[in-house]
Design brief:
Order of helices and strands: EHEHHHHHEHEHHEHHEEHHHHH
CATH topology of the largest domain: Rossmann fold
Largest sheet: 5 strands, parallel
Distance between the termini: 50 Å
Number of domains: 2
Mean pLDDT: 84
Structural class: alpha/beta
Strand content: 5-15%
CATH architecture of the largest domain: 3-Layer(aba) Sandwich
Helix content: 40-55%
Shape: globular
Radius of gyration: 21 Å
Length: 345
């Protein structure tokens, strides 16, 4: 059988998991609707032999941690990463045993493709299902930093690229900090998002047929139209099941930073920054993220932030950091690092 592999990529909280869950129940697709970073892991650990590489992957996959969704200690973090869904039956030990004991067949000249097919084959068999000809994987935001290398090295793996207004992306990440109490990364995240945005914008400008682009805003306001286009790209028939997000065939209720259930596809998370961000944050971030906002979101004549906006956002981030991290034993050292990152941002 001729297998085709597609990788869902995009900035964190941009809708990559949503797209994966919409494709989860299609009869012609095999997917593990969770960010497992197949390509990113392979790039970092390709020096390992096949057996040790698979062991490395299995040791780090979120699949073995699905039970955390039912444990209070990890429940909140798990929900905002993987989402809220009905209890599922998945035997990770059975899956792991099948993957490790069976020989990897040579489906392609490319080692990574053989490994992806092998893992997905036994993922399906562990649930008494057959492997489909289309395999969807998710590297999410982890693939963006290496996207040029990935496109050059693995041309047979095509990309489904998800974009979302970066102001909303930042707003969602900021809300997550209230749960994780991790304001160390907040300032650093601005630069990371900005770098990722530049790379995604370059992908859009290239207009490569290997890439299919989805705007989160268009997906949630007109899902059938966008999914019909996606089906044409994947060369599969549209089915109504695509309009119902599922996680391993169990109903999926979103992974919103609000931690609230979302039934189906909703457009309630568009322009959330308008209510959540301060005016000086919007001015500062709009300029920082102008590359994508001007090219892809129709923003015009974005002006540089004023010095008072920079002073406000600096003071605000210091306040957020101190109010949430002051109980940390290593607070003095980390505070100095935080100020340094703030100064070079």
């Amino acid at each position: 059988m001729n297998y085709k592999i597609y990788n869902i990529i995009g900035e964190a909280k941009s809708g990559t998991t949503l797209v994966g869950t919409l494709l989860d129940s299609h009869p012609n697709i095999t997917t593990i609707p969770i960010e497992l970073k197949f390509v990113s892991h392979f790039i970092n650990k390709s020096h390992l032999d096949d057996k040790n590489l698979i062991k490395y992957f299995l040791n780090r996959t979120r699949l073995k941690n699905l039970e955390y969704s039912q444990k209070s200690k990890k429940k909140r973090e798990f929900k905002i990463i993987n989402g809220i869904y009905k209890p599922i039956k998945f035997d990770f030990n059975k899956f792991q045993e099948l993957v490790l004991k069976n020989k990897i067949k040579k489906y392609s000249k490319e080692r990574l493709i053989n490994l992806i097919i092998h893992i997905h084959k036994y993922f399906e068999l562990s649930q008494n299902k057959d492997l489909k000809s289309i395999i969807i994987i998710q590297d999410g935001n982890h693939a963006i930093k290496n996207i040029d290398k990935i496109e050059k090295k693995f041309p047979k793996i095509r990309n489904i690229v998800i974009t979302r207004n970066p102001l909303d992306v930042y707003t969602s990440l900021k809300k997550i900090n209230k749960i994780t109490k991790n304001y160390y990364f907040l300032i650093k995240k601005i630069n990371k998002i900005n770098i990722d945005i530049s790379k995604i914008t370059n992908l859009i400008k290239k207009n490569d047929k290997n890439n299919f682009f989805i705007k989160y805003e268009e997906l949630v306001t007109n899902p059938k139209f966008i999914l019909l286009e996606l089906c044409e790209y994947l060369n599969i028939k549209f089915t109504k099941s695509l309009l119902r997000p599922t996680f391993m065939n169990s109903d999926w209720y979103g992974n919103s930073s609000t931690e609230k259930k979302i039934y189906g596809i909703k457009d309630s998370r568009i322009d959330i920054y308008r209510k959540e961000l301060k005016k000086f944050e919007v001015k500062y971030l709009t300029y920082k993220f102008r590359y994508l906002l001007e090219y892809y979101y129709g923003y015009k004549n974005i002006r540089k932030y004023q010095i008072n906006d920079l002073i406000y956002i600096t003071g605000y981030n210091i306040f957020l950091f101190i109010s949430n991290c002051h109980k940390d034993i290593k607070f003095p050292i980390r505070f100095l690092k935080f100020i340094y990152k703030l100064s070079i941002n």
